[in-house]
Amino acid sequence: GGDSIRGFIFALLIGRIIGTYSSLCISTPIVVDLDKKNKV
User: How much is the pLDDT for 14?
Assistant: First the structure.
C-alpha cells in the first residue's frame, strides 16, 4: 500500500507546486499589461 504510492504522491505534489508557480509567473504580467492598457 503506502510505499508503492509514495512516489506518485511526491510527483503529484511537485507538479502542483510547479503548476501554481508557472501560473502565477505567466498570468501576473498579462493582468498588469491589461490593466495598463485599460487605464490609457
Answer: 97
| Domain extent at residue 15 | 1-40
Tell me the torsion sign for CA atoms 31, 33, 36, 37: negative
The tally of domains found in the chain comes to: 1
Cell digits of residue 39: 487605464
d(C-alpha 9, C-alpha 15), whole Å:
10
pTM above 0.90, yes or no: no
- Residue found under cell 508557472: 22
pLDDT tens per residue across span 16-26: 999 999 999 99
